[in-house]
Amino acid sequence: MTDYDLIVIGAGAVGENVADYAHKRGLTVAVVEAELVGGECSYWACMPSKALLRSSHAVAAAKRLGGAAEAVTGDVDAAAVLARRNSFTSNWDDASQVQWLESADITLIRGRAVITGEKTIEVDGTSYSGHAIALVTGSVHTLPPVPGLAEAKPWGTREGTSAQEVPESLLVIGGGVAGSELATAWAALGATVTLVARHGLLGGMEPFAGELVADGMRALGIDVRTGVNPTRVDRDEHGLVTTTFDDGTTLVTSEVLAATGRAPGTEHLGLSSVGLTDGEWLDVDDTMLVTGTDWLYAVGDVNHRALLTHQGKYQARAAGEVIAARVQGRPVHAEPWGAHVATADHAAVPQVTFTDPEVASVGLTEEQARQQGIDVRAVEYDLGSVAGSALQADGYTGRAKMVVDESRGVVVGVTFVGQDVAEMLHAATVAVVGEVPVERLWHAVPAYPTMNEIWLRLLETYGRPE
């Protein structure tokens, strides 16, 4: 006898989806949450960060349009932006999400879960068991090992998305997605921002993405320094932060934000009780089943396959379905692209960086494709020279790249950089996931005059066989 068919540890967006999909297939489900139902995405990541960015993007877009630019007579209202951000987090109150769990007939257990053995957990002294347990505990912010940084009480990504006042000045350490977005957000709200990155911006993406984003940051007034590392951080009795860098320079700011990495949210979960290691990423198969077990699943950030909410929710849909199938003894469809697997994690992951310009990408970069031994041909095109882009913004600046597997004649990667490119990404995602032949893409006619005409220009640059 078990208390539930499935116990989900972690009630963020991903955990909610695992629970929902399993329950809809007939399982009894409980979720355990030690913080807010809705998790990181709802309160400290996706939703509040885009809410911080969107208003300034809209004003910047208006300023790039003759006729609209003349109507912009002031700056972004920071207080109103922060209030709007607060509304999207429900002022960090999870009552509405708790209500959703109740309406879905999913049991909520408040507290911190610890695995005590196979298929069993304990929450604040009470034991529960399940046919299956899903770990959906996400990832946590980490600090780089800079002397004095921890003692200076820096902002992490949580503080960077939830602060209630605009700092006079801000140092952002890290040029990844989080660092780039938060530097952009706070600069647009009026802070004097400096960003330092050891190896440039947006590593792992096409090189031109980081270059164009750095140009956009500098246009916004951000001091972007690459190849520079902090060596010491001190906060004085007045609250000011002094940072020393390895080039001998120093910088005094009101706040410092560290955005240099994430660690698995698996500390203190009791994984050692079932032969696993606390504090480590969890290895899974494509059904999210943890290697070496037949009852434990790890979904979302915690398995380190793709640290993105939408990709975690994709994994969650597959996991919820396959857990239900296994518990009920139904057939499992674990073949590539089957109903019970997350095949897209391997080579078809979409991602948007909401800087100005935006970066929207899916699949493999040219370098990643070559590293996998793919017979690659890549083409690029100036997105600003497309008629739809010129109408979208005066002096539109952007770039697009398409990576093709020549042996199969299909697109394996696409990157767009420019204003409003996020809304073009899903067409590229469908092309990559669907492995649409390049020859067939010639017949997918882009509407004129929209920025989607970039597809025709990329195909023309690629060339059509005689």
Please tell me about this protein's structure.
- Helix content is 30%, strand content 24%.
- Strand 20 and strand 21 form a beta hairpin.
- It is built from 14 helices and 21 strands.
- The protein is globular and about 70 Å long.
- It comes from Curtobacterium salicis.
Topology:
Blueprint: E1 4-9, H1 13-24, E2 29-33, H2 39-43, H3 46-63, H4 78-88, H5 95-103, E3 107-110, E4 113-117, E5 120-123, E6 126-135, E7 139-141, H6 157-162, E8 169-173, H7 177-188, E9 192-197, H8 207-219, E10 223-226, E11 230-235, E12 241-245, E13 250-253, E14 255-258, E15 262-264, E16 296-298, H9 309-328, E17 350-353, E18 358-363, H10 366-371, E19 376-382, H11 387-392, E20 399-405, E21 410-418, H12 425-433, H13 438-441, H14 454-462
Parallel strand pairs: 1-2, 1-6, 2-3, 6-16, 8-9, 8-14, 9-10
Antiparallel strand pairs: 4-5, 5-6, 7-15, 11-12, 12-13, 17-18, 18-21, 19-20, 20-21
Helix pairs in contact: 1-9, 3-4, 3-7
**CATH architecture annotation name of the largest domain:** 3-Layer(bba) Sandwich
Number of self-contained structural domains: 3
Radius of gyration, Cα only, in angstroms?
A: 24 Å
State the total count of DSSP E strands.
21
* CATH C-level class of the largest domain: Alpha Beta
Query: Oligomeric status of the shown chains?
Result: single chain
Helix and strand content put the structural class at alpha/beta
Biggest sheet features? 7 strands, mixed
What is the CATH superfamily of the largest domain? Answer: FAD/NAD(P)-binding domain
The CATH topology of the largest domain turns out to be: FAD/NAD(P)-binding domain
Overall shape: it is globular
Enzyme class: oxidoreductase
Protein name: Dihydrolipoamide dehydrogenase
Pfam family, one: Pyr_redox_2
GO molecular function, one term: dihydrolipoyl dehydrogenase (NADH) activity
